[in-house]
Amino acid sequence: MTTFQRARIEAGDRTLEGIYYTSEAIFERERQMITRRHWLCVGRAEQLQSPGAYFLVDVDGESLIIVRGHDGAIRAFYNVCRHRGTRLCRSGEGQFSGTIRCPYHAWSYRFDGSLVSAPHMDEVPDFDIAHWPLVGCAIAEWEGFLWVNLDSEAQAFEQAMAPLVGRFAPWQLDRLRRGAHIHYEVAANWKMIFENYSECYHCPPIHPGLVPLSPADSGRNDFLSGPILGGYMSVQPGAGLTTSGRRSRPAVGTVSGADLERAYYYTFFPNLLFSLHPDYAMVHSLWPEAVDRTRIVCEWYFDPTEMAKPDFDASDAVLFWDEINRQDWQICERTQQGVRSSAYRPGPYAQREGLAAAFDREYLRVLG
């Protein structure tokens, strides 16, 4: 049985020093120690319906091709031809016809990455076509979500995410389908967004439309330290986190009992904010673009049976959270402006910011 409790700060917990939000040198260290060494959520398996279906993703300047093979397996390859380094593909998503073919000299690769054709290379002594496959990247699937890791010696995904196995089974996340998405450009450091998401101390002044539906002091957590943090907040009986304040769809999967009056919020270090509601799921993926700029993709997932109905409308959830998101981004941007000041000094965390403090501890541990 899962145990939930309030997250508490530790003695002496303070916010991070300003340089962690403003220093180019620290941002570069984050790229090397975090972005290139951790599992990052990049998409969903249902984006790849058939062999040869693909999409591109940029991870810290590395273009990756995510493609489904004839064997049904999904693989990730660097978008680089083994001949002269040419970008193999420029379109963000699509369907390869037969092979992945380089536009420069027509070297062609199977969907498993193996080189199948290299015109006239049989004229080169000792050239062996089997020795020149595409360079692969580690990829894993969890509940329909796809994750990549640029580190060739990365911890196995199954080990890194072991606490999550079966954790959200009632939501049947692999069955859900994307009903809406919004891209945001936020002028704030990525860590501020994680910290903001991790606490509701700010909710009464920042989110007046949220607090009547979900009390700001109702948070209870089952992940209190490490790369996964979070738990639930209560939702008022009969209420839903929508523009109408009511839940307008049946619960997804087998969600029942107490979960019908809870919203679950988790952070997966270092790029995913994960929200589960009785009738939908919402995820934010974070992509740092500069020390003071973050691209965020917010996606909403619903039961495909509901989505197939002619009167299906996702806007009650989307508009509700779009307003909450923009309130959060605005205050994060104001905080980014403030921590640049020479007057800024780390301040004391409140007890209701226990998970934000826990995030900082994990971040500093990983940064080294």
Notes on the protein architecture:
This protein is an alpha+beta fold and 368 residues long. The chain has two domains: 18-37 and 166-367, Naphthalene 1,2-dioxygenase Alpha Subunit, Chain A, domain 1; 40-153, Rieske [2Fe-2S] iron-sulphur domain (Rieske Iron-sulfur Protein, 3-layer Sandwich). The protein has eight helices and 17 strands. The chain has helices spanning 19-22, 24-35, 157-160, 190-197, 203-206, 304-307, 315-339, 354-367, and strands spanning 40-44, 53-59, 62-68, 74-78, 93-95, 100-101, 108-109, 115-117, 136-142, 145-149, 177-186, 220-223, 228-234, 262-268, 272-276, 281-290, 293-302. The strands form three sheets. The protein has a seven-stranded antiparallel beta sheet with strand order 1-10-9-4-3-2-5, with no helix packed on it. A hairpin with a 2-residue loop joins strand 16 and strand 17 (293-302). The relative contact order is 0.17.
| Sheet having the most strands | 7 strands, antiparallel
Q: Termini, distance in Å?
A: 35 Å
How many structural units, i.e. domains? 2
Protein structure class: alpha+beta
CATH class of the largest domain: Alpha Beta
- The CATH architecture term of the largest domain is Alpha-Beta Complex
Q: Looking at the structure, what is the overall shape?
A: globular
In CATH, the topology of the largest domain is named Naphthalene 1,2-dioxygenase Alpha Subunit, Chain A, domain 1
Number of strands: 17
For the biggest β-sheet, the strand order reads 1-10-9-4-3-2-5
Strand content: 25-35%
Could you name the ranges where pLDDT drops below 50 across 5 or more consecutive residues? none
Determine the CATH superfamily of the largest domain: Naphthalene 1,2-dioxygenase Alpha Subunit, Chain A, domain 1
Following the backbone from N to C, one meets helices and strands in this order, namely HHEEEEEEEEEEHEHHEEEEEEHHH
